[in-house]
Amino acid sequence: MYPKRLWWLLAVLCLCIALYLGLGARGNWGFVLSFRANKLIALLLVAISVSTATVLFQTITRNHILTPSVMGFDALYLLTLTMLIFVLGGQSFTQLPEITQFIVNTLLLMGAALALFGTLLRRGGHDLFRMILTGIIFAGLFRSVTSFLQRIIDPNEFMVVQANSFARFGRVDAELLTLAAALTGAALFAAWRMRHRLDVLSLGDESAINLGEAPKSGMFQVLVLVSILVSVSTALVGPMAFLGLLVVSVARQITPVMSHRILLPSAGLISAITLVGGQMVLERALQSTMPLIVIVDVLGGLVFLTLLLRRKPR
Amino acid sequence: MALALACLLVILSIASLFVGVIDLSWPALWSDPGALELLVVSRAPRTIAVIISGGALAVSGAIMQMLVRNRFVEPMTAGTGQGAALGILLVTLFAPGASLLVKMVLASLTALAASAGFLAIVQRLPPTQPLLVALVGLIYGGILGAAVTVIAYQADLLQYVEIWMNGEFSGVLQGRYELLWLVALVAALAYLAADQFAIIGMGRTASINLGLNYSQTMVLGLLAISIVTALTVVTVGLIPFVGLVVPNIIARLAGDNLRRSLPLTAMTGAALVLLCDILGRLIRYPYEIPVGTVFGVVGALLFLWLLHGPKRHVS
């Protein structure tokens, strides 16, 4: 029954893509298409990274109101990036080849994320609200430290930080895009290969052990994947607090199953529809340059609030 | 403790008067008229502004925590501050020529509406989950803040909005901070009702049993925090965490008798913001780091400590 819904979602997505590429295109088709196709690929990449990262995170935390961004993951990414530029200096940072930059950044993020979320998840696993609150405060702290550092570094280096952290969908670098696509592709493939193990992990530590799965190492692998996915999407478009939460909770309504075989593609498709469709409406129908993320964040915030309020006290 | 705090506050104020880009020395005050002018026009207003807003924000945080009966909320993160910003933005959009008084009143009204909305949500939450209230407050404030961003973006006022979203005192000069005296007045008036707020912190039934006019006191408290918050946002911008961490620390040290603890709360708030403001001026001398940023770091660390630190009876 549910696989059929996936096909429907795919059809809607294809419609959105066609409209996005075709609507209002005048003049040289080849030029327009290549320009729009670049943006489209970026949108799709980000959409699928964010949704997959959220599903993975919710699986290991066994909770449906958590997302990496609510827990401060992408704020942490911006912080490590700024620190890196602060320590190395903007000059030598930009001289690093793009690939090295990216890998160094991702490795740093992974280290920091594993240290932070590893301890958080282990210590606060049973006290959900304390954990989320801590995550949100950490996110705020990271943001303050980031803007603090951005104030102290000199203006030229600040430009480097800005250029690296706030690329909107409008101007996505083609080279970075290829690299991002390769990395995300690998991470997504790994996540897909893990899908049955994820089903087992989502049952909880004891059941997972009984079924022959080591929860600790599973969690570690998942966190590694999450940090790759989050850093790729943050590097491409900047932080998005509630996108993941929004699309995954919609996915749980449309395909209400625990199985990751269904959930992963369904969340990915809905996320892609949200971004491509939303961007299409904003750009083509409303002719607005407003960043879609701002609107998505408002909607996602409302969803988060209702999820919190609807939760029955235990 | 009160005496020690007062001494600390005096020392910090004097330090604040003499920290800045232009050198100001004690003997110059008596001989150089320029130095005196600097003191009167810039340094003294700034110091006074910091003391008033720090103290009043801490007090309004303490009152809000009583009204909501929760230790983990404060006006600047739970929507009141963002509501005030929304009000200023709307006035700027629809009546750009409005007088300061109109702006003030409108910002206070939207702040009031935002805090009333928060109260309405909180009353439907289970009382056994104190952290859930804090979480909902943060998200609620975040959504209002995002709405401000959306409107500001559409109207091309993003840069204008940034000014209130991150508080700083570098723009404070003689003639540009006087609204804050009103804030001090409201905070002082609120102190007269300290006992009522302390009773309201015990809950609706207990308050009514003790003969308190529950809803009237509630409205009074909401008005006080809304006016304080709105005027602070209008003059210096959002300074998060002051109203959150200071009342918590004081409650741990001095208990919940507001009549006794509110003055301590006010002094600690003033001293802490003053310290952060001085730090912001010194770290990257001669440039300044906004106090909102410095306090964002200090306050977040203190909050994390409150959340995970030694267990006391806080809820």
What is shown here, in short?
The complex is a heterodimer of chains A (314) and B (315). Chain A is mostly helical.
Helix-strand blueprint:
The complex is a heterodimer of chains A (314) and B (315).
Chain A: H1 2-22, H2 29-61, H3 73-88, H4 90-95, H5 98-124, H6 128-152, H7 155-165, H8 174-193, H9 195-201, H10 205-210, H11 215-237, H12 243-254, H13 260-285, H14 292-310
Helix pairs in contact in A: 1-2, 1-13, 2-8, 2-11, 2-12, 2-13, 3-5, 3-6, 3-7, 3-11, 5-11, 8-11, 12-13, 12-14
Chain B: H1 2-18, H2 26-31, H3 33-68, H4 80-94, H5 100-122, H6 130-154, H7 158-165, H8 179-192, H9 194-200, H10 204-209, H11 214-235, H12 242-254, H13 258-283, H14 291-308
What does this structure look like?
The complex is a heterodimer of chains A (314) and B (315). The radius of gyration of chain A is 19 Å and the shape is globular. Chain A is mainly α. Helices cover 80% and strands 0% of the residues of chain A. Chain A has 14 helices and no strands. Chain B starts with a helix and ends in a 7-residue tail after the last helix. Chain B has helices spanning 2-18, 26-31, 33-68, 80-94, 100-122, 130-154, 158-165, 179-192, 194-200, 204-209, 214-235, 242-254, 258-283, 291-308. In chain B, helix 3 (33-68) packs across helix 8 (179-192) and helix 4 runs antiparallel to helix 5 (100-122). By secondary structure, chain B is mainly alpha-helical. Chain B is built from 14 helices and no strands. The chains are: A mainly alpha (314), B mainly alpha (315). The A-B interface holds A 127, 129-130, 132-134, 136-138, 140-141, 143-145, 147-148, 151-152, 241, 288, 290-291, 294-295, 297-298, 301-302, 304-305, 308-309, 313 and B 72, 121, 124-126, 128-129, 131-132, 134-136, 138-140, 142-143, 146-147, 149-150, 153-154, 166, 240, 283-284, 287, 289-290, 293-294, 296-297, 300-301, 303-304, 307-308.
